[in-house]
Design the sequence.
C-alpha cells in the first residue's frame, strides 16, 4: 500500500499549499526558515527544560502535556520540511546518507553504551 | 508503489537500529533528545548566519556548501524522528493536525503576503 | 565611580535574589539552565526571523518592536548569568579569555572583511 | 573601585575592537547576530545534552569539561553583548527592567518551589 504512516507525500503537499495560499514564499528564504527552525526547536526545549530527565518519558505521555509536546515536535518538523522543500532537498535521502556517515563516525564497538 | 521518496519507514527503521546497536537508549530520554534537536538546529543556523537572505537560495544550491547544509538539515530531522519514536508519536499525524491548527490561526484572507 | 552602566554587580545580586525567593535552585541545575538559554535564544530569533537583514537595524530601533527585542535579549542574558552564577564562573573573565582565543583563531590579516 | 569582577566596560571595549579590526560590521546586522546567538547557545546545549541533570553541577566543575563549558558560555555572552552594542541597548538596564517584569509575572507566593 502506497499510503501509510510513513508516507509523507500528502504532508509535504499540505505544507506547500499552506505556504502558497498565504503567498509566504518571499519570506521563506532558507535563512529565514533556518531561523524559524531554531525558534521552533527552542519552543520544544521550553516544554522540557524544567522536567527531570528520569520523568521525561512519563511527562511526554501524560495527557496534560501530550498535545503541547506533539505540537512543538510537529512545528519543528513542518518548518524543517518547508526548508528542505525550498532548497530542493530530498530529505529522506539526506537522512539516509547522514545516517551512513554517523555509522562511520560512531563505530558500534567503540561507542556501545557511551 | 509502496516505497518512494516520501516513504520514511526505512529511515525510521534505520534510525532505530542505529540507536539500538550502540545501546544508546539510556541516554535518549526525551529531554536529552530535545536538547540534541536544539543543538543540531543551532548547527544548521550556523551554516547560514553570515549569508545575506537574498543569497541564501543560491548558497544552499552551491556545490561548495550543499553537502554541509544537507547534513545539518538531516541531523535535525534524524534527531527529531528519534524523539518522535521515543515518545511513541506518529509524526506524520502530528504534522497534519498542527497544519490544521496553523490554518485556523493564520486565515488566508488576513495573512496573505504578511 | 564604582556604579555605572557596565557594573553588573547589582544585576547579578538581583538575579540571585529572584531565584532564591522563589526557591527555584532545585530546578536550576546547569543542564536545565542551558536548556533555558536555548529556549530564550529561540524567542530572540523569533523576533527577527521574518525581518530582512537590511531592515534589521531599523527594526530593532523601531519603538513598535524595541521593547519586545530588548526583553528577549535581556531574557537570554538573565538566564546566562544564572548559569554562570550556578557553576561559579566569573563570566567577565571567561569572556576575556575567549576573546583572546578568538583573536588567535581569526587573525586580523586573514579575516579582515570576511 | 571602578574596575572589578562586575565591571564589563573593558570587555565591551574589547568586543567592539575585535569586530572593528576585522571589519565585520557589515556582517553583524542584528538578524545575523541573533542567529549567531542561537548557534552559540546550541553549542552550549551540546556540552550538556547527554549529562544527567543530577550530574550537571559536578560535570561543569570537572576540570576535564570546565574550559569547554566556560568557552561556550562565554561565546553566547560575547555574541549577545555584540548584539546589544549593535542595537544601542543598555543591556544592564534591560536586564533590570526584565527582572522587574519577571517578578510581577511570577509572584513569590504563587511560584515558590514551582
Sequence:
Amino acid at each position: 500500500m502506497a499510503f501509510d504512516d510513513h508516507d509523507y507525500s500528502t504532508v509535504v503537499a499540505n505544507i506547500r499549499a499552506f505556504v502558497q495560499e498565504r503567498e509566504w514564499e518571499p519570506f521563506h528564504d532558507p535563512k529565514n526558515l533556518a531561523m524559524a527552525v531554531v525558534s521552533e526547536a527552542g519552543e520544544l526545549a521550553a516544554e522540557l527544560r524544567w522536567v527531570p530527565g528520569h520523568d521525561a518519558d512519563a511527562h511526554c505521555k501524560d495527557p496534560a502535556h501530550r498535545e503541547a509536546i506533539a505540537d512543538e515536535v510537529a512545528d519543528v518538523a513542518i518548518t524543517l520540511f518547508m526548508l528542505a522543500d525550498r532548497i530542493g532537498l530530498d530529505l529522506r535521502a539526506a537522512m539516509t546518507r547522514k545516517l551512513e556517515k554517523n555509522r562511520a563516525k560512531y563505530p558500534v564497538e567503540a561507542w556501545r553504551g557511551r
Observations:
- Chain A has six helices and no strands.
